[in-house]
Amino acid sequence: MGEPSFTPKVSPIIQIEGLEVSYGEGVVLEIPSLKVEKGVIGLLGPNGAGKSTFIKTLLALIPPLRGKVLVLGIDVTEDPLALRSRVGYMPEENAVLTYLSALDFLTLAGELAGIPRREAIGRAHEMLHHLGIGEVSHRSIASLSTGTRQKVMLAGALVASPELLLLDEPTSGLDPQGREEMLGLLALLPQKTQASVVISTHILSDVERICDQVIVLSQGQLRYAGPIDLLLARESQSVEVRVKGDPDKAAALLRRKGCEVERWGACLWVRLPEGKETKWLLRVIWESQIPLRHLAPLRKSLERSLLEKLR
Question: 10 Å Cβ neighbour count for 68?
Fold first, then answer.
């Protein structure tokens, strides 16, 4: 079977068709089709889901076994150097020479992206001040606090003015204040730099706060890709119910009445039968003499939605 063919488009920042990535004999990442538009995108999934492999494939660090991957309209297998000059990457681990000063590290990052040294030095100064850490320019990275070091790493990803940022666990290890500062910076990046951002993270509240799209991976398979609002959509026919007493007893009754019911802890997610309204459900509960503690339109949390996708 030949390679999938399609016409490159610049509009999606990421476009994938028929992707398979292999380590040795086993396929570790398989994405039949994916298009990602500009914005702030959360990359989610449990450990071993394929998130790191996904990022490395986008960076042309791992060649696909088969399929097509375009990033910013560039085929990652045909021109990886052109790709890396337009993409910024912030790894999770401290992958820098910590004896370098913050300024020297950013200058080196700029030069590696193809920027002449004099210009790279100027951009390094500019970026450090832009992120509010200009005072640490000449301090070694090893001497910096975790929060400041993370900002230096982010500055390194930004110094070449990329069109796309790939950030791996950018708030990992930060204290509450440092995390708030980092999230504030990330939330403002698209409007200040016009760059799109892909954030790989385990902290779902961070994704809910600043992302407009999500990509969900599990066991190397794509489970969802699209707007976060759609994943968290309020369902007009669904309500959240809490009762006094045994939730399973209430769930069994509602299922006999034609409802779809899922239990999440002490809560019941209840999808009403077609054509039925909330007042019908209230009457059913009242007539069954089930003590009702709470009833409200259902809005899924990202955690619950993610669990559904990973089943």
Answer: 18
